[in-house]
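Query structure, 260 tokens:
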């Protein structure tokens, strides 16, 4: 049996032809005799509309419906609500209701695995599942990336679309220890991107500092670390000084604990 390949199509920049690419790639694969499922994971629902379902708000079952059942631990039929198009592709439709899923996922257990769990049973019915992502790096996109085996980044040869993807590529410049912290969500992506500009030797010193001090830099601190590195004045003492600075959330937390 052929293993199903799950591919996410993502870019933080809008208007880079994610919908067009998903649609044409899916139909092209279907014309080659492959079983293809398209998952519309963008609340704008352009992929659903492009395939002819212009009144998606009145569809009884959508991606939002199924993901909510998973979050609420309710039973669901894994292939319920899937629509078939005459071009030979199936689609998990969506509508604007999916925009509320971002909030629902924030406090959910294993929140980045929700979409992957939903697709797990569907994979046995298809050769390819293509997930169109929303133009942001929110929880829905994180879910899509966690569910995917690979990622296609549609991009125009213009500055702004390209800017939307280097963030992803910069992370590959991190040493494995810090990259592991990103994967385990011990450090957020934005500060991690800033730290990826540090030479490997400075990243190793930083990692040792984070381990010994049991803390990670905020985005503002990471920007400062990168600045000192560029100026050639970053060392262990400077790192300790920066890491010892109060973060905004620490100040707010301290204020909230004050009593009159």
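Result returned for the query:
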């Amino acid at each position: 049996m052929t293993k199903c390949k799950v591919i996410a199509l993502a870019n933080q920049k809008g208007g880079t032809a994610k919908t067009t690419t998903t649609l044409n790639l899916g139909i092209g694969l279907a014309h080659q005799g492959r079983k293809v499922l398209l998952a519309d994971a963008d609340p704008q629902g352009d992929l659903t509309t492009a395939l002819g379902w212009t009144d998606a708000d009145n569809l009884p079952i959508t991606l939002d419906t199924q993901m909510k059942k998973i979050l609420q631990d309710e039973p669901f039929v894994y292939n319920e609500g899937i629509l078939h198009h005459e071009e030979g592709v199936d689609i998990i439709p969506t509508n604007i209701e999916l925009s509320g899923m971002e909030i629902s996922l924030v406090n959910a257990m294993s929140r980045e695995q929700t979409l992957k769990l939903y697709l797990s049973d569907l994979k046995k019915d298809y050769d390819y599942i293509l997930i169109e992502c929303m133009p942001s790096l929110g929880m829905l996109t994180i879910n899509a990336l966690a569910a995917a085996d690979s990622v296609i980044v549609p991009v125009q040869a213009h500055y702004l679309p390209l800017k939307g993807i280097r963030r992803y590529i910069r992370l590959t410049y991190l040493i494995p220890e810090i990259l592991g912290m990103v994967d385990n969500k011990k450090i957020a992506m934005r500060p991690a991107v800033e730290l990826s500009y540090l030479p490997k030797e400075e990243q190793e010193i930083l990692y040792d500092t984070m381990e010994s001090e049991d803390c990670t830099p905020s985005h503002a601190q990471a920007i400062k670390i990168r600045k000192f590195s560029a100026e050639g004045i970053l060392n262990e003492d400077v790192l300790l000084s920066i890491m010892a600075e109060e973060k905004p959330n620490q100040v707010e937390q301290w204020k909230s604990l004050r009593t009159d």
